Amino acid sequence: MAQTKIITDEITTLQSTESKCWWREISKKQWYALWASVLGYILDSFDTMVYAFALTRILNEWGLTTVEAGLLSSVTLFSSAFGGVFFGAVADKVGRKKAIMITVLLFSIFSGLSGLSQNIVQLAIARALLGLGMGGEWTAGVLLISETWPAKHRGKAIGLMQSGWALGYFLAALAAMVILPAFGWRVLFFLGILPALFSLWVRSFVDETELWKNLKENPNKKTNILQIFKGDLLKHTVVITLASSFLMFAYWGLFSWLPGFLSMPIEKGGAGLSVVKSSAWMMPTMLGAWGGYVSFGFLADKFGRRPIFAAFLMMSSVFVYVYGNVRDANLLILLGPFVGFFGSGAFSGFGAFTSELYPTSVRGLGAGFTYNVGRIMSAFAPIIIGYFAGIYGLGVSLGLTAVSYFLAALTIYFIPETKGVKLK
Predict the structure, then answer these.
(1) Average of pLDDT values for 72-93?
(2) pTM of the model
(3) DSSP letter at 21?
Protein backbone atom coordinates (compact mmCIF):
# COMPACT_ATOMS: atom_id res chain seq x y z
CA MET A 1 0.00 0.00 0.00
CA ALA A 2 2.83 2.36 0.87
CA GLN A 3 4.51 1.70 -2.47
CA THR A 4 1.22 2.27 -4.29
CA LYS A 5 0.78 5.57 -2.46
CA ILE A 6 4.30 6.67 -3.41
CA ILE A 7 3.65 5.86 -7.08
CA THR A 8 0.29 7.67 -6.95
CA ASP A 9 1.93 10.72 -5.37
CA GLU A 10 4.64 10.72 -8.03
CA ILE A 11 2.04 10.56 -10.82
CA THR A 12 0.07 13.39 -9.22
CA THR A 13 3.24 15.48 -8.90
CA LEU A 14 4.16 14.79 -12.53
CA GLN A 15 0.68 15.72 -13.75
CA SER A 16 0.75 18.90 -11.67
CA THR A 17 4.15 19.81 -13.12
CA GLU A 18 3.02 19.14 -16.68
CA SER A 19 -0.15 21.18 -16.19
CA LYS A 20 2.06 24.16 -15.40
CA CYS A 21 3.87 23.74 -18.69
CA TRP A 22 1.16 25.34 -20.78
CA TRP A 23 3.17 25.02 -23.98
CA ARG A 24 2.82 21.22 -23.83
CA GLU A 25 -0.87 21.64 -24.59
CA ILE A 26 -0.19 23.35 -27.92
CA SER A 27 0.00 21.31 -31.14
CA LYS A 28 2.53 21.74 -33.93
CA LYS A 29 -0.06 23.34 -36.23
CA GLN A 30 -1.06 25.80 -33.52
CA TRP A 31 2.59 26.79 -33.10
CA TYR A 32 2.88 27.26 -36.87
CA ALA A 33 -0.14 29.58 -36.78
CA LEU A 34 1.45 31.59 -33.98
CA TRP A 35 4.84 31.88 -35.64
CA ALA A 36 3.25 32.91 -38.93
CA SER A 37 1.51 35.76 -37.12
CA VAL A 38 4.55 36.71 -35.03
CA LEU A 39 6.97 36.74 -37.96
CA GLY A 40 4.47 38.59 -40.13
CA TYR A 41 4.12 41.28 -37.48
CA ILE A 42 7.91 41.55 -37.01
CA LEU A 43 8.30 42.19 -40.72
CA ASP A 44 5.32 44.54 -40.73
CA SER A 45 6.85 46.57 -37.91
CA PHE A 46 10.28 46.71 -39.51
CA ASP A 47 8.95 47.96 -42.84
CA THR A 48 6.78 50.55 -41.12
CA MET A 49 9.18 51.91 -38.52
CA VAL A 50 12.32 52.36 -40.65
CA TYR A 51 10.64 55.61 -41.70
CA ALA A 52 10.75 56.87 -38.09
CA PHE A 53 14.53 56.43 -38.07
CA ALA A 54 14.96 57.90 -41.55
CA LEU A 55 12.71 60.84 -40.65
CA THR A 56 15.42 63.32 -39.63
CA ARG A 57 17.54 62.52 -42.71
CA ILE A 58 14.60 62.91 -45.10
CA LEU A 59 13.51 66.10 -43.35
CA ASN A 60 16.95 67.68 -43.78
CA GLU A 61 17.62 66.36 -47.30
CA TRP A 62 14.33 67.57 -48.74
CA GLY A 63 13.96 70.65 -46.52
CA LEU A 64 10.65 69.52 -45.03
CA THR A 65 8.90 71.10 -42.07
CA THR A 66 7.97 69.01 -39.02
CA VAL A 67 4.32 69.17 -40.14
CA GLU A 68 5.19 67.79 -43.60
CA ALA A 69 7.31 65.04 -42.04
CA GLY A 70 4.45 64.18 -39.68
CA LEU A 71 2.07 64.15 -42.64
CA LEU A 72 4.03 61.27 -44.22
CA SER A 73 3.50 59.20 -41.07
CA SER A 74 -0.16 60.13 -41.07
CA VAL A 75 -0.61 59.03 -44.70
CA THR A 76 0.64 55.55 -43.73
CA LEU A 77 -1.70 55.44 -40.74
CA PHE A 78 -4.72 56.53 -42.78
CA SER A 79 -4.14 53.86 -45.39
CA SER A 80 -3.38 51.20 -42.76
CA ALA A 81 -6.77 51.92 -41.21
CA PHE A 82 -8.52 51.28 -44.50
CA GLY A 83 -6.30 48.27 -45.10
CA GLY A 84 -7.21 46.79 -41.72
CA VAL A 85 -10.95 47.13 -42.32
CA PHE A 86 -10.73 45.96 -45.93
CA PHE A 87 -8.53 42.94 -45.25
CA GLY A 88 -10.66 42.04 -42.24
CA ALA A 89 -13.54 41.58 -44.67
CA VAL A 90 -11.18 39.83 -47.11
CA ALA A 91 -10.11 37.41 -44.36
CA ASP A 92 -13.78 36.61 -43.70
CA LYS A 93 -14.22 35.94 -47.41
CA VAL A 94 -11.05 34.10 -48.56
CA GLY A 95 -9.60 32.89 -45.27
CA ARG A 96 -7.10 33.97 -42.65
CA LYS A 97 -4.08 32.28 -44.26
CA LYS A 98 -4.51 33.87 -47.70
CA ALA A 99 -5.08 37.28 -46.12
CA ILE A 100 -1.72 37.09 -44.32
CA MET A 101 0.10 36.16 -47.52
CA ILE A 102 -1.46 39.02 -49.50
CA THR A 103 -0.78 41.67 -46.86
CA VAL A 104 2.87 40.64 -46.37
CA LEU A 105 3.50 40.85 -50.11
CA LEU A 106 1.84 44.27 -50.23
CA PHE A 107 3.82 46.01 -47.50
CA SER A 108 7.09 44.35 -48.59
CA ILE A 109 6.91 45.53 -52.19
CA PHE A 110 5.99 49.10 -51.35
CA SER A 111 8.58 49.38 -48.60
CA GLY A 112 11.21 48.64 -51.24
CA LEU A 113 9.66 51.12 -53.65
CA SER A 114 9.77 53.82 -50.94
CA GLY A 115 13.53 53.86 -51.43
CA LEU A 116 13.12 54.99 -55.04
CA SER A 117 11.09 58.08 -54.16
CA GLN A 118 12.41 61.39 -55.48
CA ASN A 119 10.03 63.74 -53.70
CA ILE A 120 7.47 63.90 -50.92
CA VAL A 121 4.53 63.03 -53.22
CA GLN A 122 6.14 59.82 -54.47
CA LEU A 123 7.13 58.79 -50.95
CA ALA A 124 3.61 59.52 -49.69
CA ILE A 125 2.09 57.26 -52.37
CA ALA A 126 4.51 54.41 -51.59
CA ARG A 127 3.92 54.72 -47.83
CA ALA A 128 0.16 54.84 -48.36
CA LEU A 129 0.18 51.57 -50.31
CA LEU A 130 2.51 50.03 -47.73
CA GLY A 131 -0.01 51.03 -45.06
CA LEU A 132 -2.76 48.96 -46.68
CA GLY A 133 -0.75 45.80 -46.07
CA MET A 134 0.40 46.94 -42.64
CA GLY A 135 -3.15 47.36 -41.35
CA GLY A 136 -4.41 44.13 -42.89
CA GLU A 137 -1.61 41.93 -41.53
CA TRP A 138 -2.52 42.59 -37.89
CA THR A 139 -6.16 41.68 -38.47
CA ALA A 140 -5.37 38.46 -40.31
CA GLY A 141 -2.79 37.42 -37.70
CA VAL A 142 -5.14 37.96 -34.77
CA LEU A 143 -7.85 35.91 -36.49
CA LEU A 144 -5.48 33.06 -37.28
CA ILE A 145 -4.32 32.81 -33.65
CA SER A 146 -7.72 33.38 -32.01
CA GLU A 147 -9.41 30.65 -34.03
CA THR A 148 -6.55 28.18 -33.62
CA TRP A 149 -5.41 28.42 -30.01
CA PRO A 150 -7.39 27.22 -26.92
CA ALA A 151 -9.31 29.88 -25.00
CA LYS A 152 -7.24 29.64 -21.80
CA HIS A 153 -4.04 30.41 -23.69
CA ARG A 154 -5.41 32.86 -26.26
CA GLY A 155 -4.17 35.93 -24.40
CA LYS A 156 -0.64 34.53 -24.22
CA ALA A 157 -0.58 33.75 -27.94
CA ILE A 158 -1.87 37.17 -28.97
CA GLY A 159 0.57 38.82 -26.57
CA LEU A 160 3.42 36.88 -28.21
CA MET A 161 2.16 37.93 -31.63
CA GLN A 162 1.94 41.57 -30.57
CA SER A 163 5.52 41.35 -29.25
CA GLY A 164 6.59 40.95 -32.86
CA TRP A 165 6.05 44.70 -33.29
CA ALA A 166 8.70 45.47 -30.67
CA LEU A 167 11.14 43.02 -32.26
CA GLY A 168 10.55 44.58 -35.67
CA TYR A 169 11.05 48.06 -34.20
CA PHE A 170 14.26 46.84 -32.52
CA LEU A 171 15.55 45.43 -35.83
CA ALA A 172 14.66 48.71 -37.55
CA ALA A 173 16.68 50.60 -34.92
CA LEU A 174 19.62 48.23 -35.37
CA ALA A 175 19.46 48.53 -39.16
CA ALA A 176 19.25 52.32 -38.91
CA MET A 177 22.26 52.46 -36.60
CA VAL A 178 24.36 50.39 -39.00
CA ILE A 179 23.04 51.37 -42.46
CA LEU A 180 21.82 54.96 -42.13
CA PRO A 181 25.19 56.64 -41.46
CA ALA A 182 27.02 54.58 -44.11
CA PHE A 183 24.49 54.09 -46.93
CA GLY A 184 21.61 56.51 -46.33
CA TRP A 185 17.88 56.15 -45.89
CA ARG A 186 17.11 54.66 -49.33
CA VAL A 187 19.03 51.44 -48.64
CA LEU A 188 17.15 51.18 -45.35
CA PHE A 189 13.88 51.08 -47.27
CA PHE A 190 15.24 48.60 -49.83
CA LEU A 191 15.72 46.04 -47.04
CA GLY A 192 11.97 46.05 -46.58
CA ILE A 193 11.35 44.01 -49.72
CA LEU A 194 12.97 40.87 -48.26
CA PRO A 195 9.91 39.84 -46.18
CA ALA A 196 8.07 38.97 -49.40
CA LEU A 197 9.83 35.58 -49.22
CA PHE A 198 8.02 34.89 -45.94
CA SER A 199 4.71 34.34 -47.76
CA LEU A 200 6.17 31.15 -49.30
CA TRP A 201 6.69 29.69 -45.81
CA VAL A 202 3.11 30.54 -44.82
CA ARG A 203 1.78 28.81 -47.91
CA SER A 204 3.71 25.60 -47.15
CA PHE A 205 3.32 25.20 -43.38
CA VAL A 206 0.26 27.07 -42.11
CA ASP A 207 -3.27 25.62 -42.18
CA GLU A 208 -6.51 27.53 -42.51
CA THR A 209 -8.57 27.63 -39.28
CA GLU A 210 -11.28 24.99 -38.73
CA LEU A 211 -13.76 27.63 -37.57
CA TRP A 212 -13.50 29.50 -40.86
CA LYS A 213 -13.62 26.31 -42.96
CA ASN A 214 -16.72 25.10 -41.07
CA LEU A 215 -18.37 28.47 -41.65
CA LYS A 216 -17.78 28.27 -45.40
CA GLU A 217 -19.07 24.70 -45.54
CA ASN A 218 -22.35 25.71 -43.90
CA PRO A 219 -24.56 27.54 -46.43
CA ASN A 220 -26.95 28.61 -43.67
CA LYS A 221 -24.31 30.80 -42.03
CA LYS A 222 -24.12 33.83 -44.28
CA THR A 223 -21.91 36.82 -43.57
CA ASN A 224 -23.73 40.09 -42.92
CA ILE A 225 -21.27 42.95 -42.68
CA LEU A 226 -23.87 45.15 -40.97
CA GLN A 227 -24.05 42.72 -38.04
CA ILE A 228 -21.32 44.56 -36.12
CA PHE A 229 -23.58 47.65 -36.07
CA LYS A 230 -26.64 45.87 -34.65
CA GLY A 231 -27.81 44.81 -31.20
CA ASP A 232 -25.19 44.17 -28.52
CA LEU A 233 -22.43 44.20 -31.12
CA LEU A 234 -23.11 47.88 -31.87
CA LYS A 235 -22.16 48.87 -28.31
CA HIS A 236 -19.00 46.77 -28.47
CA THR A 237 -18.09 48.28 -31.83
CA VAL A 238 -18.51 51.86 -30.61
CA VAL A 239 -16.65 51.45 -27.30
CA ILE A 240 -13.74 49.41 -28.66
CA THR A 241 -13.33 51.87 -31.53
CA LEU A 242 -13.21 54.75 -29.06
CA ALA A 243 -10.65 52.98 -26.85
CA SER A 244 -8.62 52.12 -29.94
CA SER A 245 -8.69 55.74 -31.08
CA PHE A 246 -7.29 57.07 -27.80
CA LEU A 247 -4.59 54.39 -27.59
CA MET A 248 -3.62 54.70 -31.25
CA PHE A 249 -3.35 58.48 -30.98
CA ALA A 250 -1.13 58.13 -27.93
CA TYR A 251 1.10 55.44 -29.43
CA TRP A 252 1.61 56.94 -32.88
CA GLY A 253 1.92 60.46 -31.55
CA LEU A 254 4.65 59.21 -29.23
CA PHE A 255 6.54 56.57 -31.21
CA SER A 256 6.42 58.29 -34.60
CA TRP A 257 8.32 61.18 -33.05
CA LEU A 258 10.34 59.43 -30.33
CA PRO A 259 13.48 58.87 -32.46
CA GLY A 260 13.12 62.47 -33.67
CA PHE A 261 12.71 63.69 -30.07
CA LEU A 262 15.93 61.95 -29.05
CA SER A 263 17.95 63.28 -32.00
CA MET A 264 16.45 66.80 -32.22
CA PRO A 265 18.47 69.70 -30.71
CA ILE A 266 17.61 70.73 -27.14
CA GLU A 267 16.71 74.27 -28.27
CA LYS A 268 13.91 72.73 -30.36
CA GLY A 269 12.56 70.71 -27.46
CA GLY A 270 14.49 67.51 -28.21
CA ALA A 271 17.03 65.53 -26.21
CA GLY A 272 20.02 66.52 -28.37
CA LEU A 273 21.40 63.04 -29.06
CA SER A 274 23.13 62.01 -32.30
CA VAL A 275 21.39 59.80 -34.88
CA VAL A 276 23.46 56.78 -33.78
CA LYS A 277 22.75 57.44 -30.11
CA SER A 278 19.02 58.02 -30.70
CA SER A 279 18.80 54.63 -32.44
CA ALA A 280 20.75 52.99 -29.61
CA TRP A 281 18.54 54.68 -26.99
CA MET A 282 15.44 53.24 -28.69
CA MET A 283 16.63 49.65 -28.26
CA PRO A 284 16.03 49.41 -24.48
CA THR A 285 12.63 50.99 -25.08
CA MET A 286 11.75 48.28 -27.59
CA LEU A 287 13.06 45.52 -25.32
CA GLY A 288 10.76 46.91 -22.65
CA ALA A 289 7.93 46.93 -25.20
CA TRP A 290 8.57 43.28 -26.02
CA GLY A 291 8.34 42.42 -22.32
CA GLY A 292 5.12 44.42 -22.05
CA TYR A 293 3.46 42.70 -24.99
CA VAL A 294 4.28 39.22 -23.70
CA SER A 295 3.56 39.95 -20.03
CA PHE A 296 0.17 41.44 -20.88
CA GLY A 297 -0.97 38.16 -22.42
CA PHE A 298 0.02 36.06 -19.41
CA LEU A 299 -1.46 38.55 -16.94
CA ALA A 300 -4.69 38.87 -18.94
CA ASP A 301 -5.16 35.09 -19.04
CA LYS A 302 -4.77 34.98 -15.25
CA PHE A 303 -6.50 38.14 -14.02
CA GLY A 304 -8.74 39.12 -16.92
CA ARG A 305 -8.43 41.42 -19.92
CA ARG A 306 -10.03 44.57 -18.54
CA PRO A 307 -8.11 45.24 -15.28
CA ILE A 308 -4.73 44.56 -16.86
CA PHE A 309 -5.61 46.74 -19.85
CA ALA A 310 -6.56 49.67 -17.60
CA ALA A 311 -3.47 49.28 -15.41
CA PHE A 312 -1.10 49.33 -18.40
CA LEU A 313 -2.76 52.44 -19.81
CA MET A 314 -2.63 54.38 -16.55
CA MET A 315 1.05 53.56 -16.06
CA SER A 316 1.71 54.60 -19.67
CA SER A 317 0.22 58.02 -19.00
CA VAL A 318 2.55 58.58 -16.04
CA PHE A 319 5.79 57.37 -17.64
CA VAL A 320 5.23 59.15 -20.97
CA TYR A 321 4.61 62.47 -19.22
CA VAL A 322 7.84 62.13 -17.22
CA TYR A 323 9.83 60.98 -20.27
CA GLY A 324 8.81 63.99 -22.35
CA ASN A 325 10.15 66.36 -19.68
CA VAL A 326 13.57 64.75 -19.24
CA ARG A 327 16.76 65.86 -21.04
CA ASP A 328 19.37 63.84 -19.16
CA ALA A 329 20.65 61.05 -21.46
CA ASN A 330 21.19 58.55 -18.62
CA LEU A 331 17.71 59.07 -17.22
CA LEU A 332 16.18 58.74 -20.70
CA ILE A 333 17.79 55.36 -21.25
CA LEU A 334 16.62 54.28 -17.77
CA LEU A 335 13.01 55.37 -18.36
CA GLY A 336 12.84 54.00 -21.91
CA PRO A 337 12.06 50.36 -21.00
CA PHE A 338 9.16 51.46 -18.77
CA VAL A 339 7.72 53.66 -21.53
CA GLY A 340 8.00 50.73 -23.93
CA PHE A 341 6.64 48.16 -21.46
CA PHE A 342 3.41 49.96 -20.62
CA GLY A 343 3.00 52.25 -23.64
CA SER A 344 3.26 49.40 -26.13
CA GLY A 345 2.20 46.38 -24.06
CA ALA A 346 -1.41 47.56 -23.82
CA PHE A 347 -1.93 46.71 -27.50
CA SER A 348 -1.92 43.00 -26.63
CA GLY A 349 -5.40 43.50 -25.19
CA PHE A 350 -7.15 44.39 -28.42
CA GLY A 351 -6.67 41.07 -30.19
CA ALA A 352 -8.22 39.10 -27.33
CA PHE A 353 -11.10 41.54 -26.73
CA THR A 354 -12.17 41.83 -30.34
CA SER A 355 -11.85 38.16 -31.27
CA GLU A 356 -13.84 37.10 -28.20
CA LEU A 357 -16.67 39.61 -28.70
CA TYR A 358 -17.52 38.88 -32.36
CA PRO A 359 -18.81 35.68 -34.03
CA THR A 360 -16.73 33.92 -36.70
CA SER A 361 -18.86 35.23 -39.57
CA VAL A 362 -17.86 38.85 -38.86
CA ARG A 363 -14.84 38.44 -36.58
CA GLY A 364 -12.48 39.73 -39.24
CA LEU A 365 -14.61 42.76 -39.98
CA GLY A 366 -15.22 43.45 -36.26
CA ALA A 367 -11.53 43.23 -35.35
CA GLY A 368 -10.46 45.12 -38.46
CA PHE A 369 -13.01 47.91 -38.07
CA THR A 370 -12.57 48.65 -34.36
CA TYR A 371 -8.78 48.47 -34.38
CA ASN A 372 -8.23 50.33 -37.61
CA VAL A 373 -10.84 53.06 -37.40
CA GLY A 374 -8.83 53.94 -34.31
CA ARG A 375 -5.87 54.25 -36.67
CA ILE A 376 -7.79 56.77 -38.76
CA MET A 377 -8.14 58.97 -35.70
CA SER A 378 -4.51 58.36 -34.73
CA ALA A 379 -3.37 59.41 -38.20
CA PHE A 380 -3.79 62.99 -37.00
CA ALA A 381 -1.37 62.38 -34.12
CA PRO A 382 1.96 62.82 -35.97
CA ILE A 383 0.65 66.02 -37.60
CA ILE A 384 -0.71 67.43 -34.33
CA ILE A 385 2.44 66.55 -32.39
CA GLY A 386 4.53 68.02 -35.22
CA TYR A 387 2.47 71.21 -35.18
CA PHE A 388 2.80 71.77 -31.43
CA ALA A 389 6.47 70.77 -31.61
CA GLY A 390 7.07 73.74 -33.88
CA ILE A 391 5.54 76.04 -31.25
CA TYR A 392 6.37 74.57 -27.84
CA GLY A 393 9.11 72.04 -28.62
CA LEU A 394 8.77 68.33 -29.17
CA GLY A 395 9.18 67.28 -25.55
CA VAL A 396 6.24 69.40 -24.38
CA SER A 397 4.00 68.32 -27.24
CA LEU A 398 4.52 64.65 -26.32
CA GLY A 399 2.50 65.42 -23.18
CA LEU A 400 -0.62 65.22 -25.35
CA THR A 401 0.00 61.50 -25.77
CA ALA A 402 0.04 61.05 -21.97
CA VAL A 403 -3.46 62.56 -21.83
CA SER A 404 -4.62 60.22 -24.57
CA TYR A 405 -3.32 57.16 -22.69
CA PHE A 406 -5.32 58.31 -19.65
CA LEU A 407 -8.53 58.68 -21.65
CA ALA A 408 -8.06 55.19 -23.12
CA ALA A 409 -7.81 53.82 -19.57
CA LEU A 410 -11.17 55.38 -18.66
CA THR A 411 -12.86 54.04 -21.79
CA ILE A 412 -11.75 50.45 -21.25
CA TYR A 413 -14.16 49.97 -18.32
CA PHE A 414 -17.11 50.09 -20.72
CA ILE A 415 -15.92 46.90 -22.47
CA PRO A 416 -17.16 43.61 -20.92
CA GLU A 417 -14.71 41.06 -19.56
CA THR A 418 -14.12 38.18 -22.01
CA LYS A 419 -11.59 35.96 -20.24
CA GLY A 420 -12.09 32.27 -21.14
CA VAL A 421 -14.80 32.88 -23.77
CA LYS A 422 -15.15 30.05 -26.29
CA LEU A 423 -15.33 31.27 -29.88
CA LYS A 424 -18.39 30.43 -31.97
Answers:
(1) 83
(2) 0.78
(3) -
